[in-house]
Each structure stands twice: as structure tokens, then as C-alpha cells.
Amino acid sequence: MEACLSSNFQSRWLAPLLAFAVVLLVGIATLFLGQAENWPFGLVLALVSGFLAWFLVRMPARHRTLMKRAVADAQRSEARLSKLKREIEMRIEMRTRALIQTNQELLKEVAERRQAIQKLHEQHTFSLALLRAQSDVDEGVLVIQDNHIVFANEAMVRLSGYSLAELLNNFPFINLVHPDQREAIKDNILRRLAGEQIENHYEASLISRNGERHEVELAVAVVHDGKKIQIVVVVRDITERKQLLDNLQHMAHFDELTSLPNRALFFDRLRRALADARRHGSGFALLFVDLDGFKAVNDAYGHQFGDQLLNEVARRMEQCVRESDTVARMGGDEFAVILGDINDADDARVVAQKIINSLSTSLTLDGRECHVGASIGISLYPQDGESSESMLTNADSAMYSAKSQGKNTYAFVRG
Question: How far is residue 202's CA from residue 225's CA, in Å, rounded to a whole number?
Fold first, then answer.
């Protein structure tokens, strides 16, 4: 370290100092040899000359030092610039990568959103097509919020008789429901909104604007979207189907000609009468009625006239019994009557005689007068049988006993 400092000192300061010393010595010698009396001036001149000699000798070395410093500063600056350049390039590269990744993510998000929009569009198109299809097949669709209709399709407009503007003008859904069913429908909706799992298909009756009653089938679903709760109701008009089913039900249980209960419904009611009698310890009577003289009238005037006669007989027999009793046509010219809550044979005797008297009165149909009678067999529960078959068999036997007694009369199983 000392050797290095010594060498540095010699290289930088030795030559200037020697030059300064030589000039100074020359100046002093000149002073003494020339003008000794002006020695102060000569001394100053020697010093200035020495300093100038020193400066002139020192100037190239100073220049080299400054150059070295400038080169060193330039090198350091270049190094810093290179480092800064590398840092900037690294940052640019990192930022570029981040931008590329962000761009890729944005492109992916845009693609996903496009797919979602396309899917929503397809779903919307499908929903519109479904609504149109439901309208075409007369399936009404309602959306209910806060008990008011907020959406209705064309089929619902046709079914209700109200305009779309009327239905969407704070129209309470319950006003469409028949008054007899409103409480039940309200209760159903409240239970469904409370989260109770109940049947979502049920039948109801709707009243249109003109007062016409429509039998409908409702399919109900509750929809939550996080902000509001809506009820979607699909309404299918089943009035014609109900009428058809009612007609089929009527045909299955009622006589087509007289509209009286047929054999199937008669036996069903006979079983109920037996069950009620056993439960309450009461009795009832079964009357088996066969018309006297019907065949002759039917043969004389034709089947159409005979059908009219049977209708008139059915009407007269119904007038002879209570509304709670049953008059049924068993087939041909045979009828049966169930008299409930009969504990005395005299009560059955009174009704039987009333029927005979009513049918014995002449009948005038299409301007033609005719006469028929009735033979009636009577069986009583429980003394004449404890089953449907035994009750009917015994009443039928008693009817033949009445015929053997001269017709147009009645007979009990036990005389």
C-alpha cells in the first residue's frame, strides 16, 4: 500500500516540483548576479516564474487525471446505464408477460361471456317457443309476485277473458279462482312459500270475466332469485276432459234411457246401506219391482213408445220416495228401490202401495193412453238377509209371490 502511494506521489508531483525548484534557483541566481538592490521584486518574479513552470509541467498530468476520472465516470455511468437497461428490459419483459397473460384471460372471459350470452339467447328463444307452444295448446302460464300477476301468456288471456293489460295491472291472482276454492288455494300457496313439500299438481275451478266456469289443472312452482320470490303457475283447461269423464262416469253408473242408477251403482249403494245399517244398528228395506203389462204395450206401440213409458215410470217412482232413497233400473222393465232407515214393515208397505197406485194411473204418451201395473217383492234387513245377494234374491222371490197373487200388488219375504 505504501509502495503504491509512493509511486503515485512520484508520478504526479516529482516533475513539477523539480521544475519549480530549477526555475526558482535560476531566478534567485539572476537576482543576485543582476540587480541585488531589487531583490524583493526579483524574488516575486522568481516565485511567479517557478509557479508558472510548475503549472505548465503539471497541466498535462492534470489533464490525464481528469481524463481518467472522466473515463472512469463514463464507465461507471455506462455500467449503471447497462444495469438500468437490464432492469428496464426485465420489467418490460415481465410487464409484457403480464399483459399477454391478462390479454389471454380477457380473451377467455370474452369467449366465455359470448358463450353465456349465446346460451342465454338460446334459452330465451326456447322459452319463447315454449310459451308460444303452450299458448297454441291452450296451456296458460302465470307468474305471480306478491299475490299479483306479473306475467301472463296469450292462452291465459284467452282463458280468463281479461286483456293482458288488465291482468298485469295489479290483478290479484286469487280473483280468477272460484270463490268456493279461494281459501284452499291461498292456504296451498302459503304452505308452499313456507317451504313445505306438498303436491304441486291439483285441480281447481277458474271464473272467467263473463262468469263462465272452467275446470283447470294447476302445476305450481316457487322460484327464488335471491331478491324476490315468484310463483309460476301452468294452467291447463280440462273442462272438456272433465265433462267427458263425467259423461263416462254417468254412463258407467246410470241408465242411459231413464238416467236412474244402473245395476252397478245400485249394488254399490246396497253395500253402503248394509254397512250403515250394521254401523248404526238400524234397518232398511229393498223393493224389487217388475212392471205388469209392459210387454203388451211395447209390442203394440213399438220400442220408442216403450222407452217413453219407461221414462214416465221412472219419474213416477222417484216421486214416491225420499231424496235419500235410491230408485234403480235393473234392466228391461225391472226396477229396485232401497229405502233407508226402515225399521218397520209398515213403512215399506206404505211406499210399495204408493208406487202401485202411482203406476196404476193411466199414462198418456203421444196422445195414446195405456195402463201398466207393478208387482213388488219386499225384503227387510236384517231378518230377510244380511248380504246384498241374499237381500236381492229374497226380494225377487217375493216379487214372484206377488205376481202369483194376481199382479199389481206387493208381497213380503215372510208373508
Answer: 25
Q: HEC string of 79-142?
A: HHHHHHHHHHHHHHHHHHHHHHHHHHHHHHHHHHHHHHHHHHHHHHHHHHHHHHHHHHCCEEEE
SS (H, E, C) 378-391: EEECCCCCCCHHHH
Please state the separation of Cα 272 from the chain's center in Å.
43
- Mean pLDDT of the chain, nearest integer: 81
**Is residue 248, in this structure, part of any structural domain at all?**
no
Q: Quick one: 272 and 301 in the same domain? A: yes
What digits encode the pLDDT tens for the residues 116-154?
A: 777 665 555 545 545 554 445 568 888 888 888 888 888
Domain interval for residue 84: 1-136
DSSP 207-263: E-TTS-EEEEEEEEEEEE-SS-EEEEEEEEE-HHHHHHHHHHHHHHHB-TTT-SB-H
Q: Active-site residue among 333, 344, 346, 384?
A: 333
Strand pairing class (285-292; 229-237):
unpaired
Task: For residue 382, say if its preceding peptide bond is cis, omega within 30 degrees of 0.
Answer: yes
Residue found by looking up cell 259423461 in the block = 247
Nine-digit cell at 316? 213416477
185, 177 Cβ separation under 8 angstroms: yes
Q: Are residues 13 and 126 in the same domain?
A: yes
Do residues 118 and 143 share a domain? no
Q: Is 333 a catalytic residue?
A: yes
* 348 residue type, one letter: A
Full-model pTM:
0.56
Q: Are residues 158 and 130 in the same domain?
A: no
Name beta bridge partners: 207.
213
Task: Give the tens place of pLDDT for each residue, 209-247.
Answer: 998 998 988 888 888 776 788 888 888 888 888 888 888
Which conformational region is residue 261 in: left (phi greater than 0), alpha (psi within -120 to 50 degrees), or beta?
beta
CATH of the domain at 348: 3.30.70.270
CATH number for 238: 3.30.450.20
Residue 68 within any structural domain of the chain:
yes
Query: With pLDDT > 90 as the criterion, what percentage of the chain qualifies?
Result: 33
Q: Of 113, 136, 159, which residue is a domain's last?
A: 136
The rounded distance, in Å, linking the Cα atoms of 214 and 160 is 9
Q: Which is higher by pLDDT, 262 or 221?
A: 262
